[in-house]
């Protein structure tokens, strides 16, 4: 399966001058950590979705990049899939997951059976870790949060709920970055 690293957003909540994918957590750009995790997994090919908002990220990366409009996750994913260089299913990974490693990526791939897969964590886990939980919703009478890791297929949506902090810690704020550094 191919992997698409989503790194086209501005990252306004992070409140830093550097592009969000290049923000350093424990002195390593987050996107480098994500690409390294994918390289250490069973993923066959890594492609990055960049945008006009992330030109330095595009120049920095040593993987193939697809230029997207930078209008949000869904618009950028649609543009990347329309490019023709990716086929479904494709693993999508946000560039702001500095705790990601090859083992958890392989677990996600093993959980995927057919169609699409959304990886979720309990919102309470994010709160207990001390990281932001700006996007939560109810699923099976439980408050959950998306992780930024998904498999995008052609049919049916499945969810996988995990309590693994490697996918629970998205860096959206400076406080989130401090939490991530504690776990590295």
UniProtKB/TrEMBL annotation:
Keyword Hydrolase attributed: no
Coiled-coil regions, chain positions: none
Signal peptide from the UniProt entry: none
Pfam families the UniProt entry points to: NTP_transf_3
InterPro entries per record: MobA-like_NTP_Trfase, Nucleotide-diphossugar_trans
Molecular-function GO terms, alphabetical: nucleotidyltransferase activity
Protein name: MobA-like NTP transferase domain-containing protein
